[in-house]
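Amino acid chain
________________
===
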Amino acid sequence: MNPIHTVRLILFSAILAILAGCCTRHQSGGVDVAIPIIDTHIHLYDTSRPDGVPWPPESDKVLYRPVLSQHFDAVSEANKVTATVIVEASDRTEDNQWVLDLVQHNPQRYIGLVGNLPIGTDEFAGLLDRFAAEKRFVGLRMRQRPGEEKFFTEAVWRDLKLMADKGLTLDVLLANFDLKDIDLVARKVPGLKILINHVTGLVITGEPADEAWAKDVRKAASHPNVYCKISGIFQRTGKRPSPKELSFYAPIFKVVYDAFGENRVIYGSNWPVTDRGGEYSEQLSIINEFFEPMGRTVLEKLYWRNASAFYGVKLNGD
């Protein structure tokens, strides 16, 4: 072979190798592992404790089992999840401490707890002082609604403002609450950072988004202190197993993203509830398939930067 041709062949082969290397990504669930992931919504509990657990019920054959840090460690490692924020699923005050103690051995992975305290009660302020002294205690979730339509008493507003003053956050599960409640709280307590759980808690049907719902989403998103968690998507279908095609979820994702933008969407799984609909990796892959075309900056914000800013948590070395 002509020496010049030989040199050209070697150079051409080298260029191909370089191009192949720069375009190859080590992926898990469709996410480039070079992008850190903070899963902002998991639950930990132990059904074998002597006093049991208030949730899940024993009748739930999928979820009624010990769900502990070692179990999520395996999920994290399999899906390249860097860190997580735990959301308390118990209404027992001392279970906040139980979770904090459970994960204290690994503060780099378990970086925050969204707790559960009785908002609007005489004991709230003292309990908040106690738990807020722990830096991993980042906020509270509203999911129960004592008094139903009479829930928003002066005592509740007092306690929500106290949370804002302490720099704590508020997750809201839209089961006993709705988007109009989000609008109300955002207006009354503009200094409180609010995170709507599970793409607003609507039932995802695979059909085009309902315009009345979309209008309420946009109204909630008009408040700069309101964010939305892209989480619990399998749960919101009500199907077992849940659909695995992006097209089923895309109409809802689009409304939420268009309303909240790249700076106020936050990733969460709702593990182990994800197990009802499919594998953790399948849900993560669906979410990533929608957001990946928007570019690396959006992915970084979705998977960790927005969570870090909202909850005030940091990744190891960040």
In short: The longest strand covers residues 110-115. Confidence is low (pLDDT under 50) at residues 1-26. The CA atoms of residues 262 and 294 lie 9 Å apart.
